[in-house]
Automatic annotation (TrEMBL):
Top-level division of the source organism's lineage: Bacteria
Membrane-crossing segments per the record: 29-54, 66-85, 97-118, 124-146, 158-179, 191-211, 223-242, 254-272, 292-316, 328-347, 359-378, 384-408, 429-448, 514-533
Chain intervals with Pro residues compositional bias: 545-558
InterPro entries found in the cross-reference section: MFS (IPR011701), MFS_dom (IPR020846), MFS_trans_sf (IPR036259)
Protein's name according to its UniProt entry: MFS transporter
Gene source species: Streptomyces lichenis
Topology class, membrane: Multi-pass membrane protein
Domain Major facilitator superfamily (MFS) profile, first and last residues per copy: 32-540
Sequence segments annotated as region (Disordered): 1-23, 541-567
Primary localisation category: membrane
Biased amino acid composition, Low complexity: 1-13
Amino acid sequence: MTSADRGPSAGDGPRPPAPPPERLAHRQVVTVLSGLMLGMFLAALDQTVVLTALRTIADDLDAASAQAWITTAYLITATVSTPLYGKLADIHGRRPLYIAAITLFAAGSLLCGCATSLPQLAVFRGVQGLGGGGLMSLAMTVIADITTPRERGRYQGWFTAVFGGASVLGPLVGGLLAGAGDPAGVAGWRWIFLLNVPLSVLALAVLLRVLRQVPHRPVRHRLDHPGALALVVGVVPLLLVAERGRDLGWTSPIALTLYAASAAGWTAFALLERRAGPAALLPPALLRIRTFRLGVLLHFCAAIGMFGAMAALPLYLQLARGMDPAAAGLAMLPSTAANVAVTLAVGRLVAHMGRPKPALVAGLASLAAGLLVFSTLHPDSPPWYLALGLVLLGAGLGAAQQTMTTLAQSDVPRADMGAATAGVNFSRSIGGTLGTAAFLSLVFAFAADGVTARVASTLRDPALRHLAEDPANAETLAAVTRPDGTVDLEDTAFLGRLPSALARPFLEGYLDGLHAAFLLGTATALLACVLAATRVPDVTLADTSPPPPPSGDAPVKPPSGTSPQGA
């Protein structure tokens, strides 16, 4: 290994400024992109693929009451590791960190496929998440390294398409594999994890070759260990209460303790980051860049509606439309198609015009319109109306996601690109987690009140009361009715055993909750749209990359002339 490979050291003395890295040809960028897309697809798919298989997994491992930890463990480690990958990639380079991420992901997948108990599976899912957090963040960092701000959206659009497609395909693939019996003598749900291993090996083989083309000038920093610890203390309790709040109780002593621990962690993190300066996980200098601040804030707001909709729409499709998980996944295809088409078109348009703001504002407006359509859905809504909402959602995400990322990266110095991109992904992950928790909490809170009132009203009808007294129906209703007269709505399987006349008040109650959740998403998307329209500068992106730092000691100031840096 040469001294250049190791990066600058304290005894090397002053070093002359490095020339800008050679610009890669389109063919070379596409070659790098192909390997990165496979890795990102695996990570994105794994966030949703287990959702429709949870019941099967829990039954097989005899741990139905703890099945939520299968998703929570992955979410926590993936979210916490994202900023760490960004900073370590700035220090040591993208290639070794990406290799480490995909190796951890493959090892975690293999262990998950061999798990014999739910606690084991939860721990191994955490290992998977440690790798998945890097695959998502580093992919966009690498593309930012090898492209200019103006052409970046053209390539990052493929990542948005991959992410959107994986989010829709995940529940479908999970449902199919969970119900596939025992292929090759192995339980179907285990193939959800085992198939990741050969795909990871393939992605690793491609990336070992193509990432040699990615330029990197090491930054001479040490990892901010106190800041990393404070971040863990701030994030983990927040994610725990967001994921488990409905079971724990949002104002229970445990939840209040988690709130306090998270607040203390975030406070310590802010103080430690200011003290660490350029070595911080999220350097304070980045927050002085207006476009970065706006990009992070817009990602947070949009993620609330995006991830919340992905969690709530399957409930509507399966409850109101009576679809099974596989059919519900297929019903989401209009959103995927619109997402891919608009993503690719907007990427080329921004690369040609150099102005991301029009596409950003239009995308957020389309996202808000789609969520508004969902807030008015009913069991008898025509299929074209549902398809309209799905197309608006997919098109909005296709136009907004990539332009928000391009905006956040546009003025960031190359030395801080890893930390900045990780910050963007971290913001989206936190927003998505809180959005999902808020959506599902609203659904069940409004549904509980609405169902109780509607069932009482329905039973005043003598004919329906007689139907409810039928032994089979009475047994089903008794199983979901609590001693205080309220209804347990956590398990919806009972609806399939009730006549439609008795099931309707339950469905209408669920729809009350879904409408409230989608209205929340509409409000956050509209807020993001207003912020984009009024605060994002309408500038033309540069067709050259920001220069690398003159030495490995510290990042340079953001380049001038692309956007204002004031508040």
